[in-house]
Specification:
- This protein has 262 residues and is of the alpha+beta class.
- Among the domains are: 98 residues; 31 residues, no CATH class.
- Helices cover 29% and strands 20% of the residues.
- It has 6 helices and 10 strands.
- The protein has a 5-stranded antiparallel β-sheet with strand order 1-2-3-5-4, sandwiched between helices. Strands 6-8-7 form a 3-stranded antiparallel β-sheet, with no helix packed on it.
- A hairpin with a 7-residue loop joins strand 2 and strand 3.
- Helix 4 packs antiparallel against helix 6.
- The longest helix has 17 residues.
- It is globular, with a radius of gyration of 18 Å.
- The mean pLDDT is 95.
Length: 262
């Protein structure tokens, strides 16, 4: 299914709620798209079910989820599954194509302390609930590099390991972007393994294209979803990334990891 056909389906197909996805902080539902019982499914997050947060304006999380897809689409990386804003059984909200991950793959993992497996990057050491040393790791792959860079651009404050979907074909989707685009630096992510690495030419080209888009069609679309200060902050983060030319390091003053990590 192409991105265009997926967004058309998400926007226009009848939406039938199948059940609530637990445990989510906000009301999150699994829904069927269309009348075929075996047809595509979606995640539906109505604005009416959003829990108030101290640092994000009430009733804005669905718009932020869609804004994250807009930026993902502008970068050309498909980090975020196809997403739309539309009405539904519980009122207006975000509807996102359900993408079933491969249970045999773990893009982010916790392992007992020891040698780091080939193809993985070490993030930190910690203790589990039995006081055993464990390692937080994630894979060293191009799709995850793109997701880590995307998270910096959108200022994702909650990239947990469970928000990384490892697809069977090797693609990696990121989900749950309701707490992005704050004007203050609030990046919290488990994807710190790339810190200090220089960007590839492809990554620089994507960031440069986004910067152009923020002063054009992408910025116009975001103008209906975010306030002007949040859009300006997104532009500044992109400019800083291009100026630095490398993945950032964890900084002081704000927790660098989400809690819990999964």
């Amino acid at each position: 299914m192409t991105t265009g056909s997926a967004t058309d389906l998400l926007a226009g197909a009848p939406l039938t709620v199948l059940g609530r996805i637990m445990p989510a902080s906000n009301h999150t539902y699994l829904a069927r798209l269309g009348d075929d019982p075996d047809g595509p499914q979606a995640v539906y997050k109505p604005t009416s079910g959003e829990r108030p947060l101290w640092d994000f304006a009430d009733g804005t999380l669905a718009a932020r989820e869609y804004a994250a897809w807009v930026v993902s689409d502008a970068l050309g990386w498909s980090v975020v599954p196809p997403t739309v804003l539309r009405d539904g059984p519980a009122g207006p909200g975000m509807v996102q194509l359900w993408c079933e991950p491969d249970p045999e793959q773990d893009a982010v993992d916790l392992l007992p302390e020891g040698p780091v497996p080939d193809g993985m990057l070490h993030v930190l050491d910690a203790y589990d609930n039995h006081d055993r040393l464990i390692m937080l790791l994630h894979e060293d792959s191009a799709p995850l590099r793109r997701m880590a860079l995307f998270d910096v651009v959108v200022n994702n404050t909650d990239r947990k390991g469970g928000h990384v979907l490892a697809m069977a074909d090797g693609h990696r989707y990121g989900v749950d972007h309701g707490v992005c685009f704050h004007v203050d630096d609030k990046l919290r992510t488990v994807l710190w393994g790339f810190h200090g690495r220089r960007f590839t030419a492809e990554e620089r080209t994507a960031l440069e294209g986004l910067l152009v888009g923020l002063d054009g069609p992408t910025g116009d679309t975001l103008g209906d979803l975010l306030d002007r200060y949040e859009i300006a902050a997104t532009r500044r983060r992109t400019e800083r990334l291009l100026s630095a030319g490398r993945f950032p390091e964890p900084g002081p003053g704000w927790p660098s990891l989400p809690w819990p990590a999964f």
